Amino acid sequence: MNPPIPLLEIRELYVNYGGIQALQNINLTVNAGEVVTLIGANGAGKSTTLRAISRLINPRSGQIVYQGRDITRRPPHEVVRLGIAHSPEGRRVLARQTVLDNLELGAYTRSNSAEVKADLDRQFEIFPRLAERRLQLAGTLSGGEQQMLALARALMSRPKLLLLDEPSLGLAPAIVREIFSIIRDLRATGVTILLVEQNAKLALESGDRGYVLEAGRITLTGQAANLLNDDQVRKAYLG
């Protein structure tokens, strides 16, 4: 019996920023239903990997294959329609728009208004604080609430693959625990997640598999539980 085709496969990916090589020969897979995490120091290439997948930057060479289709040169809006959503580092909510406006914009590729309304209600169930603030300007929310909004906005496109970039950045520990509880709940509903996270311990505890990036290269990969107990990983990233 042939193994299932990965939901996402990156093959020999190279990305340059000007004359600087940001990613070198990146090979990774994400299977349906998994939480896969990328860990590494600042500047290792983690966010660049997500930006290449969502087509916000162009690779120099290599392939990005999603559901068996080569999407390496697809425009970003087509990638969203295919089922990939990106919640970026720094949250990037539309500060002068309301919570509701931000969520509705997350569904801009969808045309079934009844389904969009049902998903809005679903996001307000998952994130009750957003329901309380639905008519509030996003720029007036706390950092934790903005992260919840960024995550909910990404989910409004009904993604099969969710790219999460540093969801805990700058948040208080109690809010971080809440965000990661939501991530685990999403995984239980079948959403596949590729996670970039500065808190390597929390990321690996929440994931199935992991990749370690150093200076634009993958230097280590394995089951998340094994990476948690790896001496090299513990010394470099777990303190």
Write up what this structure looks like:
It is a single chain. The chain has 239 residues and is of the alpha/beta class. It has a domain at 8-89 and 159-238: 3-Layer(aba) Sandwich (Rossmann fold). The chain has helices spanning 46-53, 76-82, 99-106, 113-126, 128-132, 143-155, 173-188, 200-206, 224-228, 231-238; strands at residues 8-17, 20-30, 35-39, 61-66, 69-70, 84-87, 161-165, 192-196, 209-214, 217-223. The N and C termini lie far apart (42 Å). The model has no long low-confidence stretch (mean pLDDT 92).
Using the 3D structure, state the CATH architecture of the domain at 8-89 and 159-238: 3-Layer(aba) Sandwich
How does the overall form come out from the CA principal axes?
globular
Q: Briefly note the structural class of the backbone.
A: alpha/beta
The CATH superfamily of the domain at 8-89 and 159-238 is identified as P-loop containing nucleotide triphosphate hydrolases
Strand count, sense and closure of the main sheet?
A: 6 strands, mixed
Main CATH class of the domain at 8-89 and 159-238? Alpha Beta
Helix content: 25-40%
Distance between the termini: 42 Å
Q: Under CATH, the topology of the domain at 8-89 and 159-238 is which?
A: Rossmann fold
Instruction: Classify the beta-strand content into a percent band.
Output: 25-35%
Helix and strand sequence: EEEHEEHEHHHHEHEHEEHH
Strand order of the largest sheet: 6-7-8-3-9-10
